[in-house]
Specification:
InterPro entries: Aldo-Keto_reductase, NAD(P)_OxRdtase_dom_sf, NADP_OxRdtase_dom
Shape: globular
Keywords: Oxidoreductase
Strand content: 5-15%
Protein name: Aldo/keto reductase
CATH superfamily: NADP-dependent oxidoreductase domain
CATH topology: TIM Barrel
Number of strands: 9
Number of domains: 1
Strand order of the largest sheet: 3-4-5-6-7-8-9
GO molecular function: oxidoreductase activity
CATH architecture: Alpha-Beta Barrel
Oligomer: single chain
Order of helices and strands: EEEHEHEHEHEHEHEHHHHH
GO cellular component, one term: cytoplasm
Length: about 350
């Protein structure tokens, strides 16, 4: 059954579909995929009303095997935009150089020259003249965030970008950025089993009038119950304690989600997404999750979560899942300060 996907206001007057699509799933991080099949999935998402499409300059494999933003995911999104630009709310990101963990090379950049060159490169790859929401993917810690956001604000003034966003920022960084330019959205990992942002970042987003865009709202697929050790070993999660040595213990969370799903007539993925919307309502700010998938049917399933209504008792039981989690959310290849919780 097709779901009518409503729109919602994030911050700074930006309206997007109530659920978005995370483009990273269509790149190599979780195994290679066929570009034509990926494009069909993207078209299906827009057909369903899931028209808030999220990508980044660093998603994909560099064509020459070098370090640096790959851009191949943006090029894939460009094939969708070529026919349907007016239907899509487009978000992309910059700031990760593609050299995380590479000695002698900065993992992030936020200087003015880089901000401008990264934006122009993304516009070329995407085949568009404006980006609806431009995120700082990760900040360069030895440059004041005000400097980076000031350079991003210049892009808004020039009409190359419509709205600004920040990813994995702390509460204080968000407040400092918002004093320079309105921030439409904060993107960080947030789900049933990754809730550290609720302590400080979510309240700060509400304070400055920004919406929240949770990435990995399905726990990188774990919360759906479809993850297997074989699937884990095929992608970037193969070295992550949460997914490897704690795989069996964390199945207790999946069991809880499935139990609520049986009560509501929903899938595990739909329950996890419905919990996020309910949590956003409880905390007083708009929440637009961006689950990614390679399969068109999963797009329809995820959108179907909009029909799910959780009782107070079910919400409370799902809230308790956080107490069962074993293993942290930061990926092992990244430094502790890669995520906001490492700098709070």
């Amino acid at each position: 059954m097709t779901v009518t996907v409503p729109t919602v206001a994030l911050g700074d007057g930006l309206h997007v579909s109530r659920i978005g699509f995370g483009g990273m799933a269509l790149s190599h991080a979780y195994g290679d995929t066929d570009p034509d099949e990926a494009l069909r999935t993207l078209h299906h998402a827009v057909d369903q009303g899931v028209a808030f499409i999220d990508t980044a300059d660093v998603y994909g494999r560099p064509r020459d095997g070098s370090t640096g933003p790959a851009g191949t995911n943006e090029e894939l999104i460009a094939r969708l935009l070529a026919d349907r630009r007016d239907e899509v709310s487009l978000a992309t990101k910059f700031g990760i150089t593609g050299a995380v963990g590479t000695p002698g090379i900065k993992a992030t950049r936020g200087d003015r020259d880089y901000v401008r060159s990264a934006c122009e490169a993304s516009l070329r790859r995407l085949g568009t003249d404006v980006i609806d929401l431009y995120y700082l993917h990760r900040r360069q810690l030895d440059i004041p965030i005000e400097e980076t956001v000031g350079a991003m604000a210049e892009l808004v003034a020039e009409g190359k970008v419509r709205h600004l966003g920040l990813s994995e920022v702390t509460a204080d960084e968000l407040r400092a950025a918002a004093r320079v330019h309105p921030i439409a959205a904060v993107q960080s990992e947030w789900s049933l089993w990754s809730r550290d942002v609720e302590a400080r970042v979510v309240p700060a987003a509400r304070e400055v009038g920004a919406g929240f865009v949770p990435y990995s709202p399905l726990g990188r697929g774990f919360l759906t119950g479809a993850m297997t050790p074989e699937k884990v070993s095929a992608g970037i999660l193969r070295g992550e304690p949460r997914f490897v040595e704690h795989f069996a213990a964390n199945q207790r969370i999946v069991d809880l989600v499935r139990e609520v799903g049986r009560e509501t007539g929903a899938t595990a993925a739909q329950v996890a997404l419905a919990w996020l919307w309910a949590r956003g309502e409880a905390l007083g700010l708009p929440v637009v999750p961006i689950p990614g998938t390679r399969v068109a049917a999963r797009v329809t399933e995820n959108a179907g979560a909009l029909r799910v209504r959780l009782s107070p008792a079910q919400k409370a039981r799902l809230d308790s899942a956080a107490d069962l989690v074993q293993g942290g959310r930061n990926l092992s290849f990244a430094p502790k300060d890669w995520i906001s919780a490492g700098r709070e």
